[in-house]
Amino acid sequence: MRNNSAKSGTITILRDGRGIIYSINDKSDKVFVSKEYLNGAFDQDEVKYTVQKSYNSSFKKAKVVQILERKNNTFTGRVHNEGKKTFIIVFPNQPKKIKLIKQSKPIVDLTVVKVDIVDWNERGPYAHAQINKVIAQPDDPLADHLYIVNKYLIKGLFNKDSGLRNINLDDFILGQENRTDYSHLNTFSIDPDDAQDFDDAISIKLQKNIYELIIHIADVTAFVDEGSRIDSLALQNSNSYYFPEKSYHMLPNNLATKYCSLVPNKKRLAVSLYFELNKDGNVVSQHANLSIIKNKNRMTYGQVNELLSKSDNIKKYEDIFLLYELHKKLRSNRLEDGALNLSGGESTFEFDQSGYPIRIVDKKQSVSHAMVEECMLLANQYAAKLLSSKSFPIFRNHDMPSRKSFLKIESLISAFSNKPRNFNGFINSIQSEKKRRVFSKLILKNLKRADYSLTNKGHYGLSFDTYIHFTSPIRRYADLHCHRLLKKVLRNEKTDYSASIEEVIKKINYNEQKSKNAENEYNQLKKLKYIKLNQEKTFSCTIESLSKKFIRVNINEANFTAVLSKSYLKHDRYRLARNKHALVGKFSNKTYKVGDELQVEIKKVDMMNQEVHLSLCTKLKIF
């Protein structure tokens, strides 16, 4: 092994406990750090590290040798008692324990607290902390929600004195110049049943075999000036957060849900993207303009799905059926161009009065959701083309997988398919929805993460050469930025590069990942509670991956990845097959493959490390 000289960088801690260090001098230079070499580093700490490179491998391994600067000294966590010692767990696989000191009264496990580190005790096993605030008791129905919100969000940014102008909205709209008035059109919106803010609305008609589609997006920038206090505060979270208990808007509530929102039967300001498409769904003409609209029919996904199921609704809801037909052509064209179509893994919950989940439901994309999505993809793609040649937009990139990742996916497909297939063809060939979900997850793990950048790399998953986020300015800061640029382009104003945009991109990338982590951990906690409540049950699982010691399986009912130790398998000497997609018993020839279905029992639900350990019951039919 060869040791390189020490470097400095910022570390990001991953959910599995590993870290990624980004060099301070070169942000594109990143290295992975295994759990045992974190040296007590927490997320976003500035560290000194060494890189070791093996002579027979190109893979670089790093080791943290010193913490240069701690990013945070205040944390939200949960109490975990070990004998007479009380620790605070901030996240699973925590690299350094936080021990509570000067705590005279006992405090029960899983109590949600905010603590201040008083001594990092860098050379010792524990950091020392004192309680700043008790946030929630473990039996509080809102405990999980409060834990996540206090851990991830910057709260209280907006109050009554938020700097929002007190305006007469009708007069403000009447005073707007150089806007096209679309308020006479039959404009409608389709959103979730519980939607609070309405970013988009749609108008559509068919004339002489040409679809005239107008996608209206709320003009947030008419109310949020660049560099204003509201703008600066919106950037702090960069996203809206939506939980079953409560929503936390990126903007002040009255902006997000009233002034900007395309609420029903009220005139609102918008940026409208106009498309003419032929009968095959190909764009023949397109332009953008500032507008005034009126959303005349606020519909929900459920309502649209229901009316589409009844043919006698065609005349009454002609525009909905037109959009339905057009979306099928848009979607078909996109998939033919190579866009990925993998099965999702989102869940929704039904709760009892105590806040415990009593049912977990897979969130599947409905037809009505797909109709809206195709319109938004079309709008985002066109906005990207408009801006890429005339300004400096924030591109939404999804880079191509590495050659190594391609080979892994090809190996997976060849192991479970009799003939060569592309990603979509392979997933579509799988009959079982449970197996489709598992194989989609395995493919996604080998794809790169989408992010924001000033450099255009295209969007691999959507098969777009150029792409931005434009259609959700109420809830995403990247969209808000691109709206400002488009309005300047439409007004023939000069758009100059600003060095500050680099910091904005860094901020929104970090905050986007933080919001995903918040959503994922919230879901993880609810699923853990569901499994714990039902731990006497026998669960059906699907094998996700195999290693020399463990089998990772998806508990189908909860869509939760759990661990099955190899010691619970039928007694044998098991070897991991060369392609790593199967365990094979040396003497019995018993085989466990990715995608096989197993029956398991719950051995342990670890709420602190957010893990579930299983034992094998029996093996079901493999299909």
The number of helical elements comes to 12
Structural class, from helix and strand content?
alpha+beta
**Biggest sheet descriptor:** 6 strands, antiparallel
Q: What would the average pLDDT be, to the nearest integer?
A: 92
Assign an overall shape: globular
Unreliable spans are 619-623
Fraction in beta strands: 25-35%
Over all CA atoms, what is the radius of gyration? 26 Å
Structural features, described:
- The model is unreliable at 619-623 (pLDDT under 50).
- The protein has 623 residues and is of the alpha+beta class.
- Strands 1, 2, 3, 4, 5 and 6 form a 6-stranded antiparallel sheet that branches. Strands 12, 13, 14, 15, 18 and 19 form a 6-stranded mixed sheet that branches.
- It is 26% helix and 32% strand.
- The chain is globular, with a radius of gyration of 26 Å.
- Helix 1 runs antiparallel to helix 12 (500-533) and helix 6 crosses helix 7 (367-388).
- A hairpin with a 5-residue loop joins strand 27 and strand 28.
Summarize the structure.
Helix content is 26%, strand content 32%.
Task: Kindly list the characteristics that best describe this protein.
single chain, 623 residues, alpha+beta, six-stranded antiparallel sheet, 31 strands, disordered C terminus
How are the SSEs placed, and which strands pair?
Elements: E1 2-3, E2 7-13, E3 19-23, E4 30-33, E5 46-53, E6 60-69, E7 74-82, E8 85-89, E9 97-100, E10 112-119, E11 126-136, H1 143-152, H2 169-174, E12 180-181, E13 187-191, E14 200-207, E15 210-218, H3 229-237, E16 241-242, E17 247-248, H4 253-259, E18 267-277, E19 283-300, H5 301-308, H6 318-336, E20 347-351, E21 357-362, H7 367-388, E22 395-397, H8 403-416, H9 423-428, H10 433-445, E23 451-453, H11 477-490, H12 500-533, E24 538-546, E25 550-555, E26 560-565, E27 574-576, E28 582-585, E29 591-593, E30 597-606, E31 611-619
Parallel strand pairs: 9-11, 12-19, 13-19, 26-31
Antiparallel strand pairs: 1-5, 2-3, 2-5, 3-4, 5-6, 7-8, 7-10, 8-9, 10-11, 14-15, 15-18, 16-17, 18-19, 20-21, 22-23, 24-25, 24-30, 25-26, 27-28, 28-29, 30-31
Helix pairs in contact: 1-12, 6-7
